[in-house]
Design goal:
- The chain is an all-beta fold.
- It has a single domain (about 5-295), classed as Sandwich (Jelly Rolls).
- Helix content is about 0%, strand content about 40%.
- The protein contains 1 helix and 24 strands.
- It has one helix spanning about 25-30; strands at about 10, 20-25, 35-40, 45-50, 55-60, 65-70, 70-75, 90, 95-100, 105-115, 120-125, 130-135, 140-145, 160, 170, 175, 190-195, 205-210, 215-220, 225-230, 235-240, 245-250, 260, 290-295.
- It has an 8-stranded mixed beta sheet, with no helix packed on it. Strands 2-3-10-5-8-11 form a 6-stranded antiparallel beta sheet.
- The mean pLDDT is about 90.
Length: about 300
């Protein structure tokens, strides 16, 4: 049972107009991170004003074009998050863009407070860095968009973590709530997209726990469209129920480097991966930049 229900945002709670999800830093209760999901019918458009934020636009499913600063960027169609990576577009602060979808679909807009005004930057799917992490039942895939590459986003980090049914993601549990040589203070938003089964929606489990000086306890079933906000503490594991796939999108950060510290009670799990194979169901989605990273 969750002791902080304000950190678990159920699908539809923040919906309005064409926005299926609208999490601002104010709604999250922190300083940097936000995420919006827009659902467009065929032929529909949505204006996007970045204001004091930078933003990253990527497709959850469908295809779109984005017009910004007199240029139009056409995204290749993405059937769904479980079958393909996607093109993505970085938008700087104090800008206006229009997202248009001829055939309809769902589109994510990840945001973060900006300290610099950078240039618009479009990257096709071939630029996505796809890695395989863990082994055995801890196998998962990581699709890095602006994370671990040369794209400068003024501290905005976004990735997807497709996880095969029955596997454990974010394992061992880890935290990133302090700034040190081995850790960075990051605000993390976990948005869940879970594949449906033949007779209904899928599900997964998410856990976050704190330390005695900053207690927090979340252990909840999550479904497609739910969000967990990670202010602090050890988060993980995320467990995909058998037969379902789990996707997590996270970011942004107060630093351009993603460093974390494992829960010392569970760090030993990493040592078991050397003797196990990576789940052969992975990668679910491929890029020209696909690597195996057992860590």
């Amino acid at each position: 049972m969750s002791q902080r229900n304000d950190l678990l945002v159920r699908a539809g709670e923040t919906a309005h107009d064409q926005w299926a999800l609208d999490i601002t830093p104010q709604r999250a209760g922190w300083h940097f991170a936000g995420i919006r999901i827009v659902q467009l019918a065929a032929g529909a458009s949505q204006e996007l004003r970045t204001g004091q934020d930078k933003a990253l636009v990527l497709q959850l499913g469908g295809s779109c074009s984005v017009n910004v600063a007199g240029a139009t960027y056409d995204f290749a169609r993405r059937p769904e998050v479980f079958t393909a990576v996607t093109d993505y577009l970085y938008l700087p602060r104090e800008g206006t863009a229009t997202i248009t979808s001829a055939r309809g679909g769902g589109f994510a807009v990840a945001t973060g407070r900006a300290t610099r005004a950078l240039e618009v930057s479009y990257r096709p799917a071939c630029y996505v860095l796809v890695g395989l992490r863990g082994a055995g039942s801890c196998s998962r895939q990581v699709n890095n968009y602006p994370l671990g590459n040369e794209l400068d986003t003024d501290h905005l980090l976004v990735c997807e973590v497709p996880t095969s049914g029955g596997n454990w993601s974010s394992c061992p549990p880890h935290k990133h709530d302090e700034h040190s040589e081995v850790e960075r203070e990051l605000e993390e938003i976990c948005y869940f997209d879970i594949r449906r089964g033949p007779d209904g929606p899928g599900c997964a489990l998410h856990r976050t726990c704190g330390k005695p000086v900053r207690p927090i306890e979340i252990c909840e079933e999550v479904r497609a469209g739910d969000v967990v906000l990670t202010h602090h503490g050890f988060h993980g594991p995320c467990i995909a129920a058998p037969g379902y796939d789990l996707n997590v999108m996270a970011g942004p950060a107060a630093d351009g480097t993603w460093l974390m510290t494992d829960d010392p009670a569970h760090h030993w799990v990493r040592g078991t991966w050397d003797s196990q194979d990576v789940d052969p169901r992975l990668p679910m989605t491929r890029s020209v930049n696909t690597t195996q990273d057992v860590q």
